[in-house]
Structure formats: structure tokens, C-alpha cells
Amino acid sequence: MTTDSARHGTQEAHGAQKMHGAHDTHGPQGMRVEDIMLTRGLGRFVDDVSYPRQLYAAFVRSQQAHAILTSVDTEAAKAVPGVVRVLTAADVEAAGIKNVTRHPPIAGRNGSTLIIPPRPALAKDRVVHVGQMIAVVIAETHDTAQEGAEQVVVAFEEQPVVISAREALRDGAPQIWPQAPGNLALDWPGPIDDDGSNAKAVDAVIAQAPHVARVTVTQQRLCAATIEPRGAIGLYDEATGRYTLRTGTQGVGPVREMLAGIMGIDRSALRVVSEEVGGAFGMKSPAYPEYPVILLAAKLTGRPVRWMADRSEAFLSDHQSRDTVTEGELAMDDKGRVLALRVRHTANLGAFCAPTGAALQTLNFARCFPMMYRIPKIDIAVLCAFSNTIPTTPYRGAGRPEANYFLERLMDEAARVMKMDPIRLRQRNLIPRSAMPYKTAVGQTYDSGEFDAVLKKALALADHDGFKQRRRASAKQGRYRGFGLSCFLEHSGGSPLEGAALTFPGGDSLIVALGVQSTGQGHATMYPRLAAERLGITPEMVHHRHGDSDLDIKGAPSVASRSTMTAGSAVVDAIDAMLEKGRKVAAMVLEASETDIAYHDGHFEVVGTDRRLTLFETAAQAKEMAERGTIPESLDTKLSRETPLTYPNGCHIAEVEVDPETGLTQLLRYSAIDDCGNVRDHVLVQGQVHGGVAQGLGQALMEQAYYDPGNGQLLAASFTDYAVPRADDVGTLVDDVHPVPATTNPLGVKGAGEAGTTAAIAAIMNAIADAIPNHAGVALDMPATSEKVWRACQAARATANSAS
User: Fold this and answer.
1) Are residues 366 and 392 in the same domain?
2) What pLDDT was estimated at residue 37?
3) Residue 23 contacts residue 524 (beta carbons within 8 Å)
4) Nearest Cα to 525, choosing from 45, 43, 28?
5) Could you tell me which residues come within 8 angstroms of residue 271 by beta carbon, excluding any fewer than 6 positions away?
6) In the sheet that 542-545 helps form, which strands lie side by side, from edge to edge?
7) pLDDT < 50 positions in the chain
8) Does residue 455 share a domain with residue 384?
9) What is the pLDDT of residue 540?
10) Per-residue pLDDT, 193
């Protein structure tokens, strides 16, 4: 990412820049139009924008995981030449900046509710995780700001730390928040009841069942590791009293709403702008503590203030994810039919309850069950705990991988208990197509799905029939080969409300403006083509805009695989409403009855005649008529709608080879069948699935944000210690779709963005367990590093030797 200070800064200063987020580049059908711009280095990321007279911010972050702050001395920092201002908690409080946490309430057991401790933008009395912000230095240059930050002297008294959720909930664990005794943030009884009757019914079934499978699985803590670290530029216009924040986020509208509440200002006094975003995955959806501080600094100094995290700072400041332990039992009858499921889930929220952190480990997690399977009774309970770690929030999947991984590991264990083929066990318990719509035991209703067909198609794609021969070939080379299955179902949609706006700027041009932010998904490709298809015009006539809260479009961020189904449905509704207005205008201009006006192929016409107007001619007429007061409004249309959840599903199969001498695991083949409803663009769907699989592979084999349990230091705080997958780690990946249209939205689409991650971790881990003989790999937890796998292989050999 390069910086062109003169070009960008001058345009901003004189207000001559075109609307943020406009993509005016078009490519041939089947290509992502964004790629022409991005591969030429023409995209604008946060670090590509500079302003005249801008200042630089450097944050002073806690080096302790838990400590009482006795003093923060900034005098030496203020004396550094070029330092303009140093801000501490006192400045933040004086400005009226409030609690940064914005989490919706969640009801817990016996009338309790989610405990939400206050999260200050800058720490005042204490710090509760490494990386928490204590002060910020504002200076003329980046290096000067860093030098000033190094001169801030923080005196503290260290306190005991606790890192894991389970340890935090044990008697005698270090107490983090007085309002959360025992570090318990939430005791959630599940989606069925609060009186224990459902739990008792499941207990009774499990107690009497002839076969019960049990597992305990861990989801290690992850870092999002986006290609573009977070950054922000704050501006303040003293004449208007209005702030502007430029940052990479997943939804400018929601960030504006959060920040307005945090800063105690009216939403109209803040503009949030995002252009290109180099990866997000859920981590970039909320308002972070840095943002109100940057805006305050801009107001106090009267100059733009810029902050850009380097990679080390990103590891210490970005919200992290996963970090759960799930245990449970699956009861079966003698024929392998599932009777009941019990789930006990413990989640680590970190030091604060970050936005949606508890929601994804309760509501998101529970809604996934029973996935593809017919399970008549389900009991789910969740404990959310505080610890001295960076807060956790959504990361690709957000509760869905946690649920699917647990159940698919449990299904394989059930097959071992039953001495039954794992494929046959799954087939026996799949919900049939004839049962749709199917209401689950947790209260969700699946509108559509052909699960048996999806599984059969995946087995054929993976050449299951030829696996035994491939396994024998591996054995001849001294290697173990395994076949792992992951049937998955997730809910997509999240927040149902989303808006869209259609604007006719003049000429043969239509702007489709959205609130959902593209962070690599291909919005500038998909939405113009959708609008063009519905209107019978060429995609070159349609221009996509996003990333500007001044568009004032209602909705939520680009999360939960929701954008196409919610924003796409809003675009369809907006087009229908616009065309209805257009018929009235065309009838007036063409002097015909409105009932005689038809629209097709970009024209309004009088049926049975050659009298017609193009869409854009009609829009121009409507604008003139609205200005004269002849009609109440032009064809410009903005609306919002609610779209129910959809339930994307599929079956992914991993085939791995393990070298018992080194523990090295190679993913040789990966086969994926996905039902994401009607496919709007196969290239975009493939990109989403492939990217998700790669991230799932990273979690399965190598990624872990590891903390020192003694002092709370993040030990995997750079790419030296935090491994991410490379291209050669992903073997042959083949995929196909089995589209079953959703019945809950006009496009018939379902989500696709999180399917690969949701499915991959169970498929790969089940394949490793299948590869290592004598069930020695069954208890492996992620990441399945070479050391762990090697130890399991040695255990398998020891078992074989003792048996002989």
C-alpha cells in the first residue's frame, strides 16, 4: 500500500474527491471487476490516504496482563521535540467519552443477565490485559510519536492473572471484575427453557440409552491476521462541529452508531468512511477504543490525526476469537439412531465483553444444532468467563465452527462406540428432504435442504470408492492416510434489517448504494450485475457505492454471511419500488393509463405501441417533475427490509497423509459440496469457499494465540510464532454446489462466506484421527502440530507392539 500525500491530501482538503467507495471499473462477465483495480495497486486503503498537516498517534499499551496503575507520568514525553499532545484517561473523561463496550443484553439463568464491565478508551486505575491502552502521544511524525510513547512512565502493582476460561471459573481463581463473582459473565441455560425441564428430559434419555458417545473438544484462541492491519484517521471540523473517521471496517453505519454513543454525540455529528479493506473476517466490525481517542485528538489539536498499527501492535490490539471448550454426550439406540444430545460449552470472553462476544457463543452457537441430523431432544448450556486476555469477538464462522466441530467429532466417536461406519451412521440420521420445513429441537426452522443428496455427491467427488487403494499406496511408503468427513449446517443472516439506495445521477447511469461493506467478497461485481439483470440494462451502467455513513443506509455490517441475502433482497425491493414510481411517471409523459405501461429491457412502454422511454429518460423526466412539484419525488429510492435467516449446508471431505517419523500432516485432497441456495456468481462462491477452507486448515494444523499462563503475556505475537497457512499447505481442492433455493428471500440465496471454515476443521481433524492407527489420534486437539501428531503415532506403535 503506497501513500500519495499530494494527490489524496489535496482532494480531501478541497472536497473534490468523488464519493468514497465508488467502483467505476468494469470487466467481462465472470471476472471480479475489483480485481482490475486491486491488482494494479489502485485501491485506496487506510494507509494510502494522507492529509496536509496531519499528526501521528502512538499508543502506550500495557505490558502487564493485570495490574493496578499507581501513576502515569507523561512529562518526559511532552518534552520530546515534535510531540504536540499527550492524552490520558483524564482527557478522555473530560471529553465525555463513555464505555467503549456496546454489547446487547442477554438473559441468563434464573433471571440473571450478561455482566458487561465498563471498558475505558484509555485505562485509568487498572489494566486487565496485555495491550490495553493507557495513553496516546500525538506528534509531528510517526517516529517522534513512537519516541514520545517510549518516554511515558507507567508505575504499577502487578496482580495475579488467569488465562483460560475453565481456570477462571475455578474456586480461588484471581478475580478480575468485582461485579462478576467467580469471573462468570453469563450462565446461559440454552434456547429451550430456564427451569431445567429440558435438561432433565435429556438426562433421562442419556441415562437409559443403550449407547452413549462422549467427547471433549477445544477450540484454541486465534488471531484474525488480516493482510491489512487496523488503522484510523480522525478529523474534526471546528466550523461545523463534525467529526470524520476513516478506517477499515465491515460497516460504516454500525460503527457510527457505536461511536456516537461512546462519544456522547449526535449521529449527525460523525461521518465514518471506509474504502478498500484488506481482510476483516468479523474482527473489523466493531468500534475499537482507538477510534474515539483518535477523534478526540483531532479535535484538541485542530489537525488530522493518523494511526496505523504495525503487525506487532495488531497482535496486541485486535480482538481475538474462538477459545472455547465443549463437552457433551450423544445417546443412540441399538440401530444407531440418535436419541438425544447434551452440550456443555465454556467460552473465554477475554478481559472485556466486546461487541457480540457473548452472543456468538450462546445464540449463534446454539442455533446451529442439530445441523443436518434428526435429534429429537437437545440440551445446551453455556458459561461465558472473563480472563486476563484480549477480548474475543467474531472470526469467520462466529460460533458455527465451534458447534459443527463439536458435533462432527462426536458423530465420529459415536460411530466408534457403535462399531459402525461413520458414513452409514450419518446417513441413518440425516433429516430427509420430505421433512422440510423442519423445526429443530432448539426452535429453528430449516426452510430447505437435501442433505442425503449433498452427502452422496461429496462422496462421489472425493472418490470415496478409491480411498482404500490410495491408503494402501501410502502404507507402502510408510505413511498413514486418513479420510475425514464433515457434514455441516449453519445459519446465515444475523441481523435481518438491511437497506439499499438507488440514485440516478444523470445520463445513462445508476448508482446502487449499500451499507454492507466489501472486504474482499466482490460486492462491486455482484450488486451491479444483480441490478442490471433485474432492469434489463448493461452492468456498465450500474455503479456500486458503499463505505460512507453519509449514505445513511440502515443495516448491519458485512458479517454472518448475510450480505447477498439481506442487501440483495433490499436491492430487489428498491428496484420494484423504483419501477412502480417509474410507471406513474411514464404514464404521465406518454399520456397513457398507468395500467397500460409495461417495463422490460430497460424501457417503459405503452403496451401494444412503439411509444416508450428508456429507464434513464424516465428518471430525468421524474427529476424535473419532482423539482417543479408535479410529483412528490424522483425515481431515487431508498428503503430497508428484514430478511429471515437461511441455512446453508454441505459436506466437506479431507484426505490427509501423516508421516509417523516426523508427525508431518499433509492435506492431499479436499472435496467440498455446498448448498448456498441459488448461486449468483460461481467465481465469488468459489473464492469464499476456498478462502474459508484455507483458514480452517490454519486452525486445524498450525494457528494458536498462546498466552503464558503465569504472567498473561501473549507469546505468539508475531508471524515468527503465529503460523498461518501458505498456498502449498492446501492440497488439491475440488468443489461443487448442490443448490437448493432458500424460500425466505426473493433471490433464493443462502450464505457462503463461512462454510469453508465451518466445515474444514472437523473434516481435517477427523481425517487425522482416521489416519493414525489404534484410535491414537482420536483425542488430538487443534492445532494438530507435527509434535502432537508424532506423539500420537508413537502411542499407536506402542499399542500395536504391546498387542503383538
Assistant:
1) yes
2) 85
3) yes
4) 28
5) 242, 243, 244, 245, 256, 548, 549, 550
6) 542-545, 510-514, 497-503, 637-642
7) 1-29
8) no
9) 93
10) 63
User: With helix as H, strand as E and coil as C, how does 77-104 read?
Assistant: HHCCCCEEEEECHHHHHHCCCCCCCCCC
pLDDT of amino acid 194: 60
If one counts every other C-beta atom within 10 angstroms of the C-beta of residue 650, the result is 31
Total count of residues recorded for the chain: 804
- Dihedral pair phi/psi, residue 59, rounded to 5°: -95, 140
Q: 694 and 785, same structural domain? A: yes
Which residue segment(s) compose the domain that 556 sits in? Answer: 497-642
Residues of the chain by 3-state class (helix, strand, coil), percent to 5? 35, 25, 40
Cell numbers standing for residue 172: 480461588
Check residue 1 and give its pLDDT. Answer: 28
Judge whether 84 and 300 are in contact, CB under 8 Å: no
**Which domain CATH number covers 295?**
3.30.365.10
CA atoms of 177 and 182, how far apart (whole Å): 9
In this structure, the answer to whether residues 61 and 41 fall within a common structural domain is: no
Question: Among residues 623, 642, 661, which one ends one of the domains?
Answer: 642
234 in any annotated domain: yes
327/233 same-domain check: no
- Sign of the alpha-carbon torsion through 39, 43, 46, 51: positive
Same domain as 698, residue 624: no
Is 108 within a domain? no
Strands (E), 297-405: 305-308, 321-332, 338-350, 377-386
Interaxial angle between packed helices 422-429 and 400-418, expressed in degrees from 0 to 180 and rounded to the nearest 10: 110
Peptide bond into 401 cis (omega under 30): no
Q: Is 514 helix (H, G, I), strand (E, B) or coil?
A: strand
In-domain check, residue 251: yes
Same domain, 724 and 737: yes
Question: DSSP labels for 231-248?
Answer: EEEEEEETTTTEEEEEE-
pLDDT of residue 366: 95
The answer to whether residues 247 and 230 touch, using CB atoms and an 8 Å cutoff, is yes
pLDDT for the residue 560: 81
| Cα–Cα distance, 361 to 380 (Å, whole number) | 11
Give the count of domains, the chain.
Answer: 5
Q: What is the DSSP string of 637-698?
A: EEEEEE---B--EEEEEEEEEE-TTT--EEEEEEEEEEE-BS-S-HHHHHHHHHHHHHHHHH
CB 191 within 8 A of CB 366: yes
Residue 563 lies in a domain: yes
- Is 245 in the same domain as 351? no
- DSSP secondary structure string for all residues of 532-560: HHHHTS-GGGEEEE-SBGGG------S-T
Helix (H) or strand (E) holding 396: none
Residue 402: strand, helix, or coil: helix
